[in-house]
## 1
Amino acid sequence: MDRRTRLIATFEEAKIDALLVTSLKNVRYLTGFSGSAALLLVEPQRTTIFTDPRYDLQVRQQVDCHVTVSTKPARALETALARRKIRRLGFEAQHVRFADHARWKQSLPASLRLTPTTSLVESLRAIKSPPEIDAIRKAVTLNSAAFDAATKQIRLGMSERELAAEIDYQMRLLGADCPAFDTIVAAGPNSALPHAQPGSKPLEANELLLIDMGAQVEGYASDMTRVLHLGQPNRRTNRLYRSVLDAQLAAVETVRDGVQAGTVDRAARSRLAAHQLDQFFTHSTGHGLGLDIHEFPRLAKGEKTVLCAGMIVTVEPGVYQAGRGGIRIEDTVLVTGSGCEVLTTTPKELLVV
Ligand code: ZN
Ligand code: ZN
């Protein structure tokens, strides 16, 4: 069944007759359109994309639904809706701006009921098709190649920002659309901030260096975190690293079709607890990824979502100790019927440079 047909099959339960899609990632998923401005009206009998003249050529090349190009796409949509006999129009509650909603209430026919929906398209996106899996596989492979190339350039005294620029450069050079998110390079004590922003801090001897990077290929993201040590690590650092790796491997071990997302999180957390490190693990264990870097499902405490074959998730436990630093190890993992396939091939031993 194609994507729009599967979406339309959810309308009855969502109590809507049509869906107005405003999330550009969802528009891309449903039509293939990759431009930066579009509205999509999905009705059981037809789907129409509304965009502006900048995308006239592109939209016709990319989509196989009805196209309306207008200098005022929102107005064109309203005109189209005024002609349709839709009673309950679903909208994406998580993506619609308050001002747009207020305007629709004014401008759309009184007989049309605006109905909020949640994650109708996102739920479909959680399970990847073979071409999507291929795209993510490419993104993961490219990510690792860029990591290898960039880390060869590491020298003491260069700043976090310089290394982040080198990583981004290598990703583009190897064929990425762009980085999938802002590259994290965090040296020494900065690595204790799970989402540190690379700054002017120079890389110094005898400290940890955390790199969290993702490449976007054909619109799809990869996500990987590795930790390096500048110079030989001491016993304490080695032990800490092995504990996080132990938790990461234990969590990966639980990933399979039919398992609750919370089970994966629990595996990581309980292994860290065995090393008396669980209080330093301050985020969830992982997340789905695809067109967005963060998608369904969430691999978090108590999360009941059942993992299904074809989902692609990250597994990324970490420990963060203020003043000392942080260690996180993150792979991109494909859920399969019999277990999982770790797509990330970069070795997971503590890399000493
Ligand atoms: Zn990451
Ligand atoms: Zn991640």
Note: The two ends are 50 Å apart (CA to CA).
## 2
Amino acid sequence: MDLTLLPPGIQTRLLKLGISRPFDLVLHLPSRYEDETQLYPLADAPIGTPVLVEGEVQSAETTFRPKKQFVARISDGTGTLVVRLINFYPNQVKQLAVGKRVRLYGEIRHGFWGDEMVHPKVKNVGESNGLNEALTPVYPTVAGLAQAPLTKLIAKALTSCHLSDTLPTALIHDLGLPAFADSVRFLHHPTPDVARVQLTERLHPTWRRVKFDELLAQQLSLRMARAVRRERSAPKIAPPGRLAAQLVASLPFGLTKAQNRVLLEIAKDLKQPHPMQRLLQGDVGAGKTIVAAIAACHAIEAGYQVALLAPTEILAEQHYRKLSQWLTPLGIKVVWLTGSLKAKEKRAALEDAALGTASLVCGTHAIFQSSVEFKRLGLAVVDEQHRFGVAQRLALREKGGSPHQLMMSATPIPRTLAMSFYADLDVSVIDELPPGRTPIVTKLISDARRDEITERIAAKVGEGRQVYWVCPLIEESEALQLQTAVDTHAQLSEELEGIKVGLLHGRMKPDEKAAIMQAFIANEIQLLVATTVIEVGVDVPNASLMVIEHAERMGLAQLHQLRGRVGRGAHASLCILLYSGPLGDTAKERLKVIYENTDGFVIANEDLRIRGPGELAGVRQSGVPMLRFADLEADADLLEAAREAAGQLLSQDRTIAEAHLQRWLPGREALLKV
Ligand code: ADP
Ligand code: MG
């Protein structure tokens, strides 16, 4: 079977479905089934569920009242049924001519003319036509590719592709799963005796087999990527640790137990001759930046340079200030490099990086692009890792051999995700907040009570605190979003006399943004009206009230991140979520989760439950193949089994692993390079 021989139009549509080779057709499993194996007498046919019935057309006419439609009546001796077509073609009228015998598949409902089927599937039959023996598959498809030709192609692929098992019989047997060939054949054409829920809920053993294979492929590819990484060499970084000790001694606070633990894990990785690839996960405010700074000290003391990457200019500048404040007194040269630097400053920074005079370079991904070269890059720290994609991680590697990589993220990873999508990373978790923080109180308030909020703001500012006001996300129009922010700023400035109100949005020039942020940090601005540009990383401990407008439009991870901008100091903090009704079910569910929980881990789990892994921050960008069949939560047992099997296969017989991957993930080269 050769797909390239098909008409180009069909090939394009198949590609849209992710089908580029015959085997992809085998793996294109039905989304549901129609049961045309059982014929119901009209008198007993159940209402409101798809059924197959048969009868002779008694009458047929095109009526024009109340509107043009075709109405036929069939009878099978036990009862009668109306067939109604609202849009119809001449050949359909012919199929339903008086005296014809027809088989109809559809849902019966009570209608104006009696029990009826509207637009059923119609087939002319003779007396002796037998019934289908298998359920009829219904495949996911795209416009321009009908079920019939797709079904035919799949049937052909099922006979022409090798369906032999990639897995050793012993393994399949131990797992109690059916053979691969039997499984896909069954799923394409299941026998009618199977309990329907086993198919629809994907619980049938054949479904489990397919899901296991998919999860196994994912595990194998991640493990192999990891093995490839281990073959590369990175500088062994094992200094005495004097710089780090000096930094710690200069801090106004002591490190938490969790911070110390993850620092040990990182130090151990840095000593290895192959690149670290560690994800440092800690809820917002857990204190990841100081951990990165200490790791940087190790690399610098050993004579290497460090790059620190942030997703936004605001964050890059904030890191630059924080790190200069910590490290400059230790004699370390810190520079920053962002798109907004003046040409001369940029040239100087680039030179510092290339000559090695700068030990730490902070910046946005401008660091990756353009002409940046490092003399001796030993460690790259990527903050808010989920904002970066595979492409950027690849670019980073090209900048300087294989530096050690420390990725930081405030988005907690539920266990099943960690075991699957992140299985190629080592994970360290900061699971405690620095002491002395008072928990953030969250309030849900309807838009209608917006007036009360200005009073609260005035009161907070009266106590010496500062406030964020986050303007709504308007996905359809950036211009509108900007306008809303400008209007809100004007209105609040007017309402809050004597309070300095600042405005921050994505369209401002980087140096304007930086100036506003500086003024806010210095408490020259008390109320900062901002778009979601402040979402990541911003750290102003004196800010203790946050108002989020149209919170119902935001995702859970985003709300959690935004809320994490307050509650960073010792002051009691409040986050007000303004919503405007009526709320949809998902919005309601999200707001309830964020209202009831402050633990980022719980919130991430709920997010995973509500949205599925594909939408969870970072997963799509992670470059790890998406799962089509398996569900991480529901199939956690299979995931566990696949993990174990992957380890076994790779240590015993790589050819099996290769064959399995070839079947499931033929194009996984990009991932292997990261
Ligand atoms: P995040 O993990 O969200 O990036 P940051 O690194 O910005 O958090 O830290 C939040 C705040 O907590 C900063 O002001 C930081 O200096 C402070 N901090 C970090 N570690 C500690 C600690 N062990 N004790 C007290 N404050 C700390
Ligand atoms: Mg941070």
Note: The two ends are 34 Å apart (CA to CA).
